[in-house]
Design a protein that fits this description.
It is a single chain. The chain is mainly α. It has two domains: about 1-75, Arc Repressor Mutant, subunit A (Orthogonal Bundle); about 80-240, Four Helix Bundle (Hemerythrin (Met), subunit A). About 70% of the residues lie in helices and about 5% in strands. The chain contains twelve helices and two strands, in the order αααββααααααααα. It has a two-stranded antiparallel ribbon with strand order 1-2. Strand 1 and strand 2 (about 65-70) form a beta hairpin. The longest helix is centred in the middle third of the chain and has 25 residues, at about 90-115. It is elongated, with a radius of gyration of 20 Å. The protein starts with a helix and ends in a 6-residue tail after the last helix.
Amino acid sequence: MSRNLHSKTLHHLGEAIVAGRYPRNQSVPTEPVLCASLGVSRTVLRETVKSLVAKGLLSTGPKVGTRVLTEDHWNWLDPDVLAWQFRVGFSREFLHSVCELRRVVEPQCLRLAAQRATDQQLLELEAAFHRMKEAAAAGHDDLSEDLHFHHLLLKAGGNRLLGQMSRLLQALLRAGYERLGRRPAVPDPHLPWHAAVLAALVARDPEQAQQAMGALIDALEADMLEYFKSSPPHSAHAMVGAAAA
């Protein structure tokens, strides 16, 4: 229960900081005030502050107290920080930066996966893809299977450091789709791109695998940019309370 309360408080306070409800370069309210407003004990609050310090959002000191840091200090490779930014709102430039990161990591990982994936990993990828198809055909949201598919792709690259990027990229995908109000689509317009990625891996074609993943990322970015044209992002305050990543 204590761990769940800490997690809930962390996400609430972290999202509030990213949303700008606590001004940058300013001290946050005193510990008693925060405890009262958040409804938590000093122990939970102090654990939360430590976590936010580790993520680069806060700094603490004996004379300056607890202060909110500017964005250039934030750990943008932290999945929580990225998820909070997506939930409170993001710009076209931020979206482009996210897609650039994906283009640097995922296509190269797919190139490795085409050479290194085991037969068992290919079977797992095929099973995950078929579950995506079945969910879409039934009119269900296939996001969970989509995320699992991408997790297996990075794992199949056979590089432990790249594999560790899975949690970060999953946070980006989930937060991005939820932020854009993704709804089930029949058929899922991205299934053909996923099918091309899988086919390239099964054929063990590194070049094609790399290109297919790049094309998938291009398609996803195009959909997100189209969203910007038709429905500008909501304000940060409107996003508070959205589904957690």
